[in-house]
Amino acid sequence: MSTEPRSWLRCYRCWSQDLEVQVHYEGIHKIDPETGERADVVDEIQEAVVQCLECMHDQPHLGFVDGRVEPVEDRWERMVTGTPWVASCTVTVPAADVESCSGPEAGDSLSYAAFGDYGVREFFTHVRFHKHDDDARITVHLLVELYARSLDEAGEVLEGAAQGALTITSLAEESRPPAATGGDRH
Questions:
Q1: Is the pLDDT assigned to residue 154 strictly greater than 70?
Q2: What is the arithmetic mean of pLDDT over 46-67?
Q3: d(C-alpha 79, C-alpha 157), whole Å
Q4: Are 11 and 52 within 8 A, CB to CB?
Q5: How far apart are CA 74 and CA 58, in angstroms?
Q6: Predicted local confidence at residue 120, as pLDDT
Q7: Long-range contacts (CB closer than 8 Å, 24 or more residues apart) made by 170-177
Q8: Is 36 exposed, middle or buried (0-12, 13-18, 19+ CB in 10 A)?
Q9: Does 26 score more than 60 pLDDT?
Q10: For residues 62 and 5, what is the distance between their CA atoms, to the nearest angstrom?
Q11: Is the pLDDT at 63 greater than 90, yes or no?
Q12: Distance between CA atoms of 88 and 93, rounded to whole angstroms?
């Protein structure tokens, strides 16, 4: 697979090249008392998310580095050339790792506890239900959609992302969304 921009600079779901990067910057800077300009950087944080303007999905296979969108090496090829896989699984995590298990933020909180950043950035997760095994553990039952090039790779990605004991009850390949099968639309 080539690393030419046309290979990876596209939405991994609908293959559109109509992307935008949303950059959020926070910085603390000293001010030069002579000029009033920014001087030394005390602290700065930059977060960026690349999003498809056609289907509005975030693009976790793309990052923003030094003013340029670049592929994330450990996932771009898997996501762009792979197909969607759907897993029914459970992950048992320490109860202390779950911020909230009720209310509007419960799904994201349980997904994050189960799969970390993968659970809220890369995977499409649906928490079917959860149960408190005891005061120390929670078992989260999820449907997870992820992109991989093979059954083995899909299982490896799930196992690598799991933040606790993982049990996969089913894992099946899905067809790519229809927009991807007709080649480039732009």
A1: yes
A2: 86
A3: 11
A4: yes
A5: 17
A6: 85
A7: 170/87, 170/88, 171/85, 171/86, 171/87, 171/88, 172/85, 172/86, 172/87, 173/83, 173/84, 173/85, 174/83, 174/84, 174/85, 174/86, 174/145, 175/83, 175/84, 176/83, 176/84, 177/13, 177/14, 177/84
A8: exposed
A9: yes
A10: 11
A11: no
A12: 17
What predicted TM-score, i.e. pTM, was given to this entire model?
0.74
Task: Please report the sign of the dihedral spanned by the C-alpha atoms of residue 93, residue 96, residue 101, residue 106.
Answer: negative
Between CA 129 and CA 101 the distance in angstroms is 10
- Torsion, CA 179, CA 116, CA 149, CA 8, rounded to 10: 60
Cβ contact 78:142 at 8 Å: no
What pLDDT score was predicted for residue 11? 86
Domain 83-173: give its CATH code: 3.30.70
Q: Look over the chain and give the mean of its residue pLDDT values, rounded to a whole number.
A: 86
- The boundaries of every CATH 3.30.70 domain in the chain are 83-173
Residue 181 has pLDDT above 50, yes or no: no
Q: Does position 1 have pLDDT exceeding 50, yes or no?
A: no
Rounded-to-integer distance, Cα 155 and Cα 152, Å:
5
Per-residue model confidence (pLDDT) at position 97: 95
Look-up: residue for tokens 């969304």? 177
Instruction: Give the pair of three-digit tokens for residue 170.
Output: 């089913």
Average of pLDDT values for 56-78? 85
